[in-house]
Each structure stands twice: as structure tokens, then as C-alpha cells.
């Protein structure tokens, strides 16, 4: 299985006509998980895969150090699910990428993708990349040498998908439907960030486990600073030593640098090799930004970051007149 | 010495072991598991103990080769500079439940950190007298390939004692003098739950070993690799192979044989600590020089470094420095698969 014929043709045309230099999108991995794939030739289009299991962090490769250096990656076509067009909007608003360098192939009617970790946990005997069919409210998984197994959708969906309220691309140059199936209604999704009763103790337990591998930062499409404060040795803002104190500082800096920008895409949580609940942090931050500033990242490609605008009526702003001189 | 212990008595064995030495055991921790110290007074975590299924996600490497090891403290006071040596750790460390691949991993660590280039004092003092009690893998994990790199789910290389899971019991066999001493001491304790092995348990043990070998899910043929690596260094293939990689430290920090470190000074005001911290060749600033020059400016070059370390430079005694634990495959956030890469390198044949 690869991509539908019409989409396949479109991507090949883009490449052979020279309209784009490469196409970025998801492909099947060796195990039950997707991987990002960069096609530079029409033949390489064969590897793309749109199965709900082929979910991969594709957008991080738009702003990676290699992408910044490599002119042969521009202009680039991107296969983007609806939530990914939100991230693209955010990247455009920050001018991390330019609109004319980008050809967005939006994938419509998204019903969510599978969290490969949940799948592995559910079917530990699974080997290779299985076929996945969607039947109503179940995913039917057909692995090598296994009887097909039906699993309810909500047991396998990626966390970001179960809180998602967009099912169509926010913008696109071309769009293709993913499935004939009716999109999930937002009502079925649970949008509230998971609160934690244990509060600080809970987070201390989490941060204590962090091995400071920097995968959460490296996986974030919005963490594209060439000179990251978290790497600095002089001055050393966050020592490389692992400790609750340093790990907490690391994580708070990371999250705060994303406030108002983070689109709660959850790639940080997906990347963490020791399962820290980073999407919970991201959603909390997103919620705060919405409540405090009415700001929602990634919905306006011309949007300005709430911290970068001055509003004299800011309720928490300084009252200059009252303060006098 | 060989001995058998009923499964329900493992907790008693651990309690005895914890009375004698500093004991570390693998437990579930919400993040796939790691080794933690177990004190004699602590209740043995029943559900959390990771002795049945697959390996702990964080390998036992970190118990002896700590991610952060303070080397010495220093202080500048009124022009006087003083250094405080930090006393090395004295206690004998016993690691119970080490998987055979991780046991072999310590041999790779030894070859650098206790090797001919000099000795790392922090590692040497932690490693001194340590006893590695292995546990064989009845059910290898989804990306295990130890049998392709000279190992085995019940391999003994690097371990002092090997435990084999017989279902209702564990069969323990000492492999070294250190292991023999430890097992005898446990057997000699007044409340020892050990019973002698017998021909029947020996037989069940052999069967378990045979069966587990057949369950190792993944395989790779390394035979042709070395000849290709001989000429592949300057090949363009590395950038392609690394295309999906995001350059994080997940693979190297979870690897039982990655052993790169950096030495940094963490200074506050007039006081500071010199620490040895893990480093990763997948990080951009790895071996970046003070003047800014980076010998491996591209991700492909960093991937090549890791690959050559695992299969060529780090190899010793005719075995690769990769012990086939599969962690870097299962937990790579980008789905980069080491076995797939080996195959693609071999297929490329190296530069013409
Ligand atoms: S959810 Fe995580 S990876 Fe996604 S934008 Fe926010 S911080 Fe970055
Ligand atoms: S990915 Fe997880 S372990 Fe790695 S630095 Fe981030 S929180 Fe820590
Ligand atoms: S191979 Fe995977 S785990 Fe290793 S640095 Fe690259 S993305 Fe991270
Ligand atoms: S390279 Fe990967 S498979 Fe090999 S020992 Fe390291 S983590 Fe395990
Ligand atoms: S690689 Fe082999 S020794 Fe290591 S955990 Fe898997 S089966 Fe056990």
C-alpha cells in the first residue's frame, strides 16, 4: 500500500516538472511505526504511506539544521494532515519558513492516527509494519503471520488526536481526501488538558526520571534556534548534570520558550524515550495562553505572538499615568 | 556452584543480598524501567521487579558509569584556590537481573574506561568488586538481535552469575570467582532460600536456553559489513541514511555500550564542581572545538561516527561494540532502525 493514485501522480508531477525539489511526508518504518521520508525523485514517491500507523514527525525536517543549510530542499512539498497545517501556519507566522518555498498537499478528512507505543503495548508480538484498515470504530491490524485483530479506535489513537477539533487542512495548495469515512466529530474528542491532583510532587517524579537526551527539544518543529540556550556552556544556563533541579530548569525553559507558539502537536511526548507526559505540559501552556491572552497558535499565518505586541489596555500592564514619573 | 530458588522466595534472596552489599535491581518506573538501589529494609517491589519479560528500558550501565559523576570540588577564596577530592564510592555493588546483552555491554565499557588509554577513576571504583547477576531472557523483546552479534539470550560473557527462569523457580549458576563467592555467601546465610540444583533442573535449564534462542525475533548478517566499512567512510550514503534522524541523545543514552563523556565545570560564584557527564556523538556540539570548528558538522557524519564505533572502532575480541539489545531501534523517536541501516550500508558496497 502506498498513496492513492491521484496523489501519487500529483507528487510525481511536482517533482518531474521541477516545481518542487523534494517532497516530505510519512513512510512506513521497519517496525510498527512511521518514519519521515524525503523524496527527491519521482521513483522515491513510492515509499510514502498514509496508513493511520504511518505517523511520523515530518515537519521537524522543514526547520532542521540540515534543511536550513540545504538549498536543494527548497521549494519543498509537504504532505500535511490538518493539525500539521496548523503547525505550518505557526512556522509561517514566525517566518521560520516562507510561503513561496512551500507547497502544501493537505490531507483532508483526517480521523486521527495510531500511537505506535499503544499498539506495541496492545500487541507485543507484532513484527514489521502491519496493514491497518479502519472499520467504523475499530482499527483492524493485520501483522505478519498473525490473525487480524480488531482494536477499538480510542484505545490506539494518539493523544493529540483524541483532543483534536480540526479535521480539514487550514490551508493548502492541493488537497486529497484521506478516507471516504466521515470525519470524527469534535464532540467525541476530549479537549481538556489532563489536570494532575498530585501537583508538584507529580511533576517532580516525572522530571526526576528525565535522562536529558534532548529528544523533546530536537523533535519540536518550533525548536529551531541555531544557538539553543540549553546547549550553552558559557554561560552555562542549565548544567548538563542530571538532577531534579537541573532537569526541572531544562524542562521549564523548554516549555516557556514555546508558550504561545506550541501547537500541542505532542511530538515532544512521542519522542521522549522514558515516557514523560510532555503533552500535558504543552496543553496546560496552550490553555493558559488562551485564557490569558485569547491567543491560539497556528491559526493565523500573519498572527503575532502575544508577547511581542504592546497593548495599552493589557489588564496586567503597568499603568504609566498612575505611576507618574 | 549451581543452586535453585523458588520464585516466591526471590524476595528473600534479595533481602539477604541487600544486607551484604549495595544491591541494584530493575524495576518498572513509569518510563519502561531502570535499575534502582534496594535497601535491606525496603520491601521488595513485587509487581515492579523486572525479572520476567524483557529488559529494563534504561540499561544498568548507569549504575556503574553514572550519567553524572562529580570528580572534585573547587573553591576560590581570597585569592586561594583549593581543591577537594571527592572520596570514591567504597561499597561493593551487586546488580541483580542484568540481561546478558547488558552484561556484555560492561565489557565494552571496560575496554575503554579500564583500558590501555588509562583508567576512569569514578568508573573503576564503582566497578571494583562489582557482581553482575544476570537473568536470561525467556521472552526477548521486539527488536532484540543478540544472537547476530555473538550473544545469546542466556549468554554468560561479562556476567558473574546467570539466572535462568524455570517458571516456578530460578536456576542460578556462578560463572566467575566473584560470582562463586557471592552465591556461596548467599547460600551460607542462615535464612537462605537456596536449594541445590539437580539433574532435572539442569535439564530444564538447557531446554529453556534452547527455546529462548529460537525466540530472538530479529537477525542481521554482519559478515560482509567490515569489508564495506573499510571503504565506506567517505561515501555519500551517510547523509541519506541519517535523513530521518533528529540528532537527539535517545539512542546513545539508552545504549548499554555507549561510553562517550564530557568533563565540565559547573561554577557558581567562587565554588565549582568538576563533573563527568555523558555525551553523545549524535549531539551537534559533540567534540566541537573551542574556536568553533566542528569536525562533524553534518548529521550524517555524526551517524557515521556512531555506526563505526559500534561495528568497527569499538569492536574488541572479534565482537562488535553493539550487543544487539534493540533499545536504539525500539525507542528512536524517528523510526531509524539500526538493522535496516546495516543492511543498507552492506548493500551500498561502500565507495567505488
Ligand atoms: S507539543 Fe511539544 S513538540 Fe509540539 S509544538 Fe509543543 S512543545 Fe513542540
Ligand atoms: S525527551 Fe524525555 S528524557 Fe529526553 S530530555 Fe526530553 S523529557 Fe528528558
Ligand atoms: S537515530 Fe534516532 S534516537 Fe538516535 S539521534 Fe537519531 S533520532 Fe535520535
Ligand atoms: S547500538 Fe543499539 S542495539 Fe546495539 S547495543 Fe546499542 S542500543 Fe543496543
Ligand atoms: S538482546 Fe538478547 S540478551 Fe538482550 S534482552 Fe534481548 S534477548 Fe535478552
Describe the structure.
The complex is a heterodimer of chains A (325) and B (352). Chain A has 13 helices and 8 strands. Chain A has 325 residues and is of the alpha/beta class. Chain A has a 5-stranded mixed β-sheet with strand order 2-1-3-4-8. In chain A, strands 5-6-7 form a 3-stranded antiparallel β-sheet. In chain A, strand 1 (22-28) and strand 2 (34-39) form a beta hairpin. Chain A starts with a helix and ends with a helix. Mean pLDDT of chain A is 89; it is low at 181-193. In chain B, the strands form 2 sheets. Chain B has an 8-stranded mixed β-sheet. Chain B has helices at 10-20, 61-64, 100-113, 121-127, 177-188, 199-215, 225-232, 237-241, 250-254, 299-313, 327-330, 338-348; strands spanning 2-6, 22-27, 34-38, 68-77, 80-85, 93-98, 131-135, 161-165, 169-174, 195-196, 261-268, 271-278. Helices cover 32% and strands 20% of the residues of chain B. By secondary structure, chain B is an alpha+beta fold. In chain B, helix 7 (225-232) crosses helix 12. Chain B has 2 domains: 2-215, no CATH class; 224-350, no CATH class. The longest helix of chain B is centred in the middle third of the chain and has 17 residues, at 199-215. At the A-B interface, strand 2, helix 8, helix 9 and helix 11 of A face helix 9 and strand 11 of B. The structure holds iron/sulfur cluster (5 copies). The site of one iron/sulfur cluster has 16 residues of chain B, from helix 3.
Amino acid at each position: 500500500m502506498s498513496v492513492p493514485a491521484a496523489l501519487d501522480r500529483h507528487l510525481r508531477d511536482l517533482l518531474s516538472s521541477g516545481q518542487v525539489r523534494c517532497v516530505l511526508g510519512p513512510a512506513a518504518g521497519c517496525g510498527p511505526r512511521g518514519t519521515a521520508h524525503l523524496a527527491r525523485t519521482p521513483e522515491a514517491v513510492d515509499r510514502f504511506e498514509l496508513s493511520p500507523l504511518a505517523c511520523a514527525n515530518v515537519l521537524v525536517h522543514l526547520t532542521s539544521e540540515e534543511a536550513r543549510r540545504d538549498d536543494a530542499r527548497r521549494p519543498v512539498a509537504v504532505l500535511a494532515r490538518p493539525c500539521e497545517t496548523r503547525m505550518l501556519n505557526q512556522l509561517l507566522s514566525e517566518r521560520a519558513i516562507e510561503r513561496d518555498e512551500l507547497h502544501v498537499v493537505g490531507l483532508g478528512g483526517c480521523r486521527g492516527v495510531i500511537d505506535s507505543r499503544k499498539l506495541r503495548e496492545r500487541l507485543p508480538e507484532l513484527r514489521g509494519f502491519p496493514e491497518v484498515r479502519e472499520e467504523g470504530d475499530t482499527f483492524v491490524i493485520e501483522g505478519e503471520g498473525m490473525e487480524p485483530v480488531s482494536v477499538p479506535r480510542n484505545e490506539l489513537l494518539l493523544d493529540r488526536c483524541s483532543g483534536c477539533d480540526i479535521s480539514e487542512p487550514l490551508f493548502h495548495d492541493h488537497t486529497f481526501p484521506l478516507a471516504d469515512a466521515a470525519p470524527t466529530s469534535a464532540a467525541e474528542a476530549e479537549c481538556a488538558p489532563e489536570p494532575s491532583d498530585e501537583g508538584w510532587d507529580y511533576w517532580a517524579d516525572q522530571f526526576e526520571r528525565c535522562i536529558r537526551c534532548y529528544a523533546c527539544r530536537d523533535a519540536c518543529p518550533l525548536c529551531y534556534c541555531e544557538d539553543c540556550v540549553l546547549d550553552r556552556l558559557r554561560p552555562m544556563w542549565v548544567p548538563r548534570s542530571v538532577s531534579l533541579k537541573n532537569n526541572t530548569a531544562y524542562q521549564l525553559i523548554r516549555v516557556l520558550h514555546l508558550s504561545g507558539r506550541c501547537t500541542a502537536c505532542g511530538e515532544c511526548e512521542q519522542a521522549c524515550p522514558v515516557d514523560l507526559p510532555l503533552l500535558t505540559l504543552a496543553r496546560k501552556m496552550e490553555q493558559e495562553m488562551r485564557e490569558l491572552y485569547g491567543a491560539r497558535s497556528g491559526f493565523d499565518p500573519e498572527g503575532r505572538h502575544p508577547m511581542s505586541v504592546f497593548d495599552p489596555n493589557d489588564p496586567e500592564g503597568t499603568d504609566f499615568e498612575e505611576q507618574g514619573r | 556452584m549451581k543452586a535453585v530458588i523458588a520464585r516466591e522466595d526471590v524476595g528473600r534472596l534479595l533481602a539477604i543480598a541487600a544486607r551484604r552489599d549495595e544491591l541494584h535491581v530493575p524495576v518498572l518506573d513509569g518510563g519502561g524501567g531502570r535499575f534502582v538501589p534496594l535497601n535491606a529494609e525496603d520491601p521488595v517491589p513485587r509487581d515492579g521487579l523486572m525479572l520476567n519479560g524483557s529488559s529494563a528500558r534504561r540499561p544498568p550501565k548507569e549504575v556503574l558509569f553514572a550519567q553524572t559523576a562529580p570528580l572534585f570540588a573547587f573553591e576560590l577564596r581570597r585569592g586561594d584556590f583549593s581543591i577537594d577530592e571527592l572520596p570514591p564510592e567504597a561499597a561493593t555493588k551487586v546488580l541483580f537481573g542484568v540481561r546478558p546483552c547488558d552484561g556484555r555491554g560492561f565489557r565494552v565499557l571496560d575496554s575503554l574506561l579500564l583500558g590501555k588509554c588509562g583508567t576512569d577513576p569514578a568508573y573503576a571504583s564503582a566497578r571494583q568488586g562489582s557482581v553482575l547477576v544476570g537473568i536470561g531472557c525467556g521472552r526477548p523483546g521486539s527488536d532484540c538481535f543478540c544472537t547476530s552479534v555473538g550473544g545469546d539470550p542466556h549468554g554468560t560473557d561479562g556476567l558473574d552469575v546467570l539466572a535462568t527462569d524455570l517458571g516456578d523457580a530460578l536456576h542460578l549458576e556462578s560463572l566467575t570467582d566473584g560470582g562463586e563467592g557471592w552465591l556461596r555467601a548467599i547460600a551460607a546465610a542462615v535464612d537462605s532460600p537456596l536449594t541445590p540444583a539437580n539433574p532435572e533442573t539442569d535439564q530444564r535449564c538447557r531446554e529453556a536456553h534452547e527455546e529462548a534462542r529460537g525466540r530472538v525475533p530479529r537477525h542481521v548478517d554482519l559478515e560482509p559489513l567490515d569489508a564495506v566499512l573499510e571503504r565506506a567512510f567517505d561515501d555519500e550514503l551517510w547523509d541519506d541514511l541519517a535523513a530521518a534522524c533528529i540528532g537527539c541523545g535517545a539512542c546513545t543514552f539508552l545504549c548499554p555500550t555507549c561510553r562517550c563523556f564530557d568533563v565540565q565545570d559547573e561554577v557558581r560564584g567562587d565554588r565549582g564542581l568538576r563533573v563527568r557527564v555523558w555525551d553523545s556523538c549524535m549531539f551537534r556540539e559533540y567534540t566541537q572545538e573551542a574556536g568553533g570548528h566542528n569536525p562533524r558538522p553534518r548529521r550524517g557524519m555524526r551517524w557515521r561516527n556512531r555506526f563505526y564505533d559500534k561495528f568497527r572502532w569499538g569492536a574488541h575480541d572479534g565482537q562488535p561494540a553493539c550487543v544487539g539489545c534493540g533499545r536504539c531501534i525500539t525507542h528512536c523517536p524517528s523510526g531509524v532502525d539500526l538493522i535496516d541501516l546495516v543492511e543498507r550500508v552492506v548493500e551500498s558496497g561502500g565507495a567505488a
